[in-house]
Amino acid sequence: MADQVGATNLRSLWRVFRRNRMALVGLFMLGAMIFTAVFAPQIAPHDPDEVIRISIDDIYAKPGANHLLGTDDAGRDVLSNFIYGARVSLTVGFFAAAISVFIGATVGIFAGFYGGRVENLLMRFTDIMLVIPDLPLAIVLVALTKPRLSNIIIVIGILGWTGTARLIRSQTLAVKQRKFVLRARAIGAGNWHIIRRHIFPLVLPLIVVNTVLAISLAILAESTLSFIGLGDPTTLSWGQMLNYAFGRGAMSSGALWALITPGLGIVWVVLACTLLGQGLEQMLNPRTEWHHLSVGAEMVDREQIARHAAMREEASLGAAPTGSPASG
Hints:
Layout (H helix, E strand, L loop, with lengths): L1 H16 L3 H18 L1 H4 L34 H37 L1 H16 L2 H11 L4 H11 L2 H14 L3 H8 L4 H37 L10 H10 L2 H4 L3 H28 L17 H18 L9
């Protein structure tokens, strides 16, 4: 029975989601990039790690039959570098977003649910992190540590949780005032039970939406760090490609393909996550007209339902006999 209800809910969510064409475009764009990254060895025409012998003519060679998007300063195929670079950029995006959303959701739920000193302590720490610029702090932390991919993921993850924490806290404050939460507390349910069974399921949609949007922010942060020379030198990401192109004369040589290709990759993924995140928010947020509880193009208005119920009750009371039987 539970499986049937879950399958029905998923079908209902999918019907609402596919009504948003921009969200479908975002899903397709992100899915295409993930597919490209997963099957990079089969798709890429050349292996970026292969040892090759080049001549002066192979450096920043123009796009042609052998190299569809030209070559870079080392004579390597730009298209192959782009495909393999998607692996690194998406890896950083997904893992850093998971870290930041986990920290933000945990801080937001605990601050909103417990309140008092716990909320003051967590929110004041969040405010301190908010006023510190992320990029300069990330530069300092990455520079102090070895510029490895794991360190970059951790730094981006621990600096990107503040917005999620404040959003989840506000939602938790609203949810914990619901009647079913108060009733659960009245019958003796513990705090962990209430958080796990009542609070978390209702803030989960916001967590999902923020995760998608955090992926794009993490990719932008990694590209920025790599562009200024703080990326992992043993891996090739889109930001690293931009760094090499700018630092090794691609602009002066007129090799715009070495600059445009990784830039378009970053824009592609950021735009895909933005469109997909907006579509998920419209689908999962009950305040929007595209919510799956809506009827047709209009959302279910709870206040209007309550007014209609009150009017029906008044009409039934008015129709009932109010006089007393006559006495003899």
